[in-house]
Design goal:
mainly alpha
Length: 168
């Protein structure tokens, strides 16, 4: 553990940051699995475009988990090691897909991204001026989550527009 790296924390304990990051770490693994599962079961209009987006976002969630685990280790902690703890420690939880229609999957994915945006916004507020390294990491991830929400909502809107053209 790098002592100088921990000494830059101001007004927050390393263990507090580790605990917050472990919750986000669990969220990222669950989000990765959510996207993985959704991309396998999805059906309907523009399915291939949505699958491509889900796979891309899933890869980002896995990258986020890696970044977060690296920061946890830098702070002297251990990332949560057992998948059974992901649900009990996450902020956003996991909603197994039950309706495989492309629009339902997109709605569920947007909801997940909105939870992630709320989580990372809260983390940024808690870490601002206290842990600049983790704050920067959280800000980068937050930007990705905002982009994910926009991408998914745009796909949803495109599908709705396409359907509306044929109903008119």
């Amino acid at each position: 553990m790098a002592q100088r790296g921990i000494s830059i924390l101001k007004g927050i304990e390393a263990q507090t940051v580790i605990d917050l990051l472990n919750k986000a770490y669990c969220d990222e693994w669950l989000a990765y699995y959510q996207y993985f599962s959704e991309a396998r079961v999805i059906k309907g209009l523009m399915k291939d475009a949505v699958v491509a987006e889900l796979n891309l976002h899933g890869a980002d969630e896995l990258r986020h988990a890696t970044l977060i685990s690296n920061r946890i280790i830098q702070l002297g902690g251990t990332p949560i090691l057992h998948p059974s703890q992901w649900l009990t420690h996450s902020n956003c939880g996991y909603d197994a897909p039950t309706n495989f229609d492309v629009r339902a999957i997109l709605e569920q994915a947007v909801k997940g991204e909105q939870c992630a945006i709320s989580t990372y916004s809260s983390l940024a507020e808690q870490l601002r001026d206290k842990d600049i390294v983790t704050y920067d990491l959280v800000s980068q991830i937050l930007a990705d989550e905002v982009e994910h929400e926009e991408d998914l909502q745009s796909l949803f809107d495109d599908i709705d527009d396409f359907i509306a053209q044929f109903k008119a």
